[in-house]
Each structure stands twice: as C-alpha cells, then as structure tokens.
Amino acid sequence: MKTTHTPLTLLTLSLLTLSSAHAVTISFTPAQDNVIYENAGNLSNGVGQNLFSGVSGAGGNNRELRSLITFDLSAIPAGAIINSVSLNLTANTPNRTTETITTSLHRLTGDWGEGTSFPQGAPGGGQGAPATLNDATWTNQFTGGDLWNTPGGDFDPNASASLDVTENRLYSWDSAGLVDDVQGFVDGTLENYGWILLANPGERAKRFGSLQSTTTAIPQLVVDFTAVPEPSSSALIIAVLIPSLLTRRRK
C-alpha cells in the first residue's frame, strides 16, 4: 500500500526528528547541608562530618536534631519533565543498629545558611558547635540575619517522602512527592530551599554522612528527567512553510 504524507504529517515527522526528547539521569551532591539543635539558637553544624534526625543522647542534652539539605539543580534545563527522584543517604549510627526510626523529608519554605561551625568529639557532632556567621540554627535562618517564622525551621507540614531507618547502610527516599518538589523547583513554581529531615517525636537520633564526610558516602540526589529541546531553526522554517503548502494544495 502506498503511504501518502500530508504537509502536516511531514511537519510532525520533522519536528520529532530535529527536536526529539531524550531521558537523562544526573547525580547531584549537596550545595550545602547543616544540622539545627532544639531550643539552641547558638548551636549549628555547618561543616561537620554527619547529619542527624531524631533526639540526641545525654551527651547532646537530649535535644531534637534536624538536618537541612539542598542541591543546585541548574543543570536541569527549563521545560524538563521530571520522571523520578531519589535522595540517597548512608546511615552510620554507632552501637544502635537494631532500633528503627522513621525519617521524613519535608520541603523547606524558607532560605537558610551553612557557616563554618564544626562540632568536635563524640558522638560525631550530636552536641553541636557554636554557630558562625550565616549558619542556620533552631531560631535563625542565618546567624546574624533572618529568623525562622517558626523555631525549628519553616517547612511544608506534609512529608514529601518517609522511610524507616535501622541498620547502617545506604537508604534511598523516592516518592511522587519528591518528583513534585523537583518539578516545581525546575519550573520555578516552588523556591528551591531543599528539604529538612525529621524523625517522629521522641525517636532516638540516627546519623548519616554529610557533604563533608570523609568516612561515609556523601549525600546524592539522583534525578531522572526528560529533556525537551526547543525546536531547531530548520524545524521552525518548516513550520513557517507549512501554511503556504496547505494553501497551494487547496487551489
């Protein structure tokens, strides 16, 4: 059977050939991360080795610890369709590998900073360190600058993803909620302040390797997306010519 292509069909084929979409996967390392300490406006953990989620032990004064993390996603082109998102963290909690806590990711709705605070000694930063300029704390988005609207961080109350954490290994948070967050970041409908890690109330803290870790795998955000390029100049020329071709066929 002979196949006849109309000008509109030819245009469609040309656009598909010249401007075909393609899937891409990129792994991002954090732009910054930090830990904030319950009711301690003078403590932070800007460049420490670990992130935390949950309540510290007696050495950390039994405070709730929350971690902040964000990624620079500018490598994802405008108009991209986000297919999947995974946040990978590696747990390295000493001595407590049979206790399970639920760690949830909530999208942050306020900006925050990472200074040069560096906790010393055991247990790997759970006690915090004096906040330095621009460090986020329980009360401040930036030390020396803006305050959170709500102490403990400003974030969406609905979790984007949740996962049970027990033994020391790699954990991957992936969900439709994270896809929605990253799609919003890329589209510009949501501000990209990253996420805050929260445990259920009262759960003992787990710790994870941070951006600065030298002994544990650092965090990774793995984003799979479909890039949809702008039509090429050739495709645009074809699009301009089609109306005249259609007019000639009608005569």
- Spans with pLDDT under 50 lasting ≥5 residues? 1-18, 233-240
In one word, what is the shape? globular
- What does the largest sheet look like? 7 strands, antiparallel
By DSSP (H or I, 4+ residues per run), the number of helices equals 3
Task: Tell me the domain tally.
Answer: 1
Tell me the β content: 25-35%
Helix content, binned percent: 10-25%
Number of strands: 13
What is the average of the pLDDT values? 88
**Helices and strands, in N-to-C order?**
HEEEEEEEEEEHEEEH
CA radius of gyration is: 24 Å
Query: End-to-end span in angstroms?
Result: 27 Å
Report the structural category: alpha+beta
Please outline the helices and strands.
Elements: H1 7-18, E1 22-28, E2 32-37, E3 43-44, E4 50-55, E5 64-70, E6 81-90, E7 101-107, E8 129-130, E9 161-165, E10 170-174, H2 176-187, E11 195-199, E12 206-209, E13 220-227, H3 233-250
Antiparallel strand pairs: 1-13, 2-5, 3-8, 4-5, 4-12, 5-11, 6-10, 6-13, 7-9, 7-11
Helix pairs in contact: 1-3
Textual characterization of the structure:
The chain has one domain. Helix content is 17%, strand content 29%. The protein has 3 helices and 13 strands; from the N terminus they run αββββββββββαβββα. Strands 2, 4, 5, 7, 9, 11 and 12 form a 7-stranded antiparallel sheet that branches. The chain has a 4-stranded antiparallel sheet with strand order 1-13-6-10. It has a two-stranded antiparallel ribbon with strand order 3-8. Strand 4 and strand 5 form a beta hairpin. The two termini are 27 Å apart. The N terminus is likely disordered.
